[in-house]
Here is the input.
Amino acid sequence: MAAILNLLLTIFLAFIGFVSGSKALLGNSLYAFKDFVASLVVLIGIRVSEKPADVEHPYGYGKIEFVAMLFIGVAILIASLFVFVHSIRDLWTGWHGQLQVPKLVALWAGCISVVTNYKLYKYLHCVGTRRNSPAILATAKHHHSDTTASVFVVLAIFGANMGLLFLDPLVAVIETLDLMRLSVGMLKEGLNGVLDSSVSVESRSEIESIAQRVPGVRKVSKVDIRQLGQNRWIDMTIKVDYNKSAKEGYLISLHVKESIIKALKNISDVSVSIEPYMP
Here is the structure.
């Protein structure tokens, strides 16, 4: 649904922006187009990431969401740079009063953009939180930014009709700078996910604390966490008394695994290795 709405909004804003002569509204249409592409990539990414693990991919396909974020970030950055260059040129022209005054129909189109982007933000934020999906939450964040940008577009069109012609391309410049900032953040987050950057110390400490409460666990010597899109895969090593039998050690590790999965959300699997504890 979000992808279809973004496509319709892209076409609508681009058409009105072209007809009305509003550069800010044309820039706003690129926001919508960016969200349309992002929604498609996220949809495909989630469909693939939910495939079960297999022999060739023992950790599953969760990292496809981070790959999707990288593609989105690159696409946004390229489009932003293109619009930024043209907006700087129009800003100079507008400062000298040589730009066409945007028609008032652009003002109504900007208001529609504000309402649509805010509704999409609330919807995607709810879905992303429920699914714990970094890609959906990132898309929701962009819609929140788009809502703010659309408000400035409305103000710029109004100001241009009051004689401040430079406001329209000025807002377009601000939009593109904001888009570049967001795209760099998405690229950083996507790279961190693909390259298995370290998870927060709080998450690691919480897992260690759960394991330490299991009877028979003398020490937690290692905890590695892989973020696989929505879920986390935990590899850990615990120490049990050296005189425990293999069966007793296995039951303790099974208890640790069940305790972690029960206590924490979005855990894909827990792999527990056992080492002897020597006092």
Summary: The chain has a mean pLDDT of 81. The two ends are 60 Å apart (CA to CA). Helices lie at 2-20, 23-49, 64-95, 105-131, 134-161, 167-194, 201-212, 246-263.
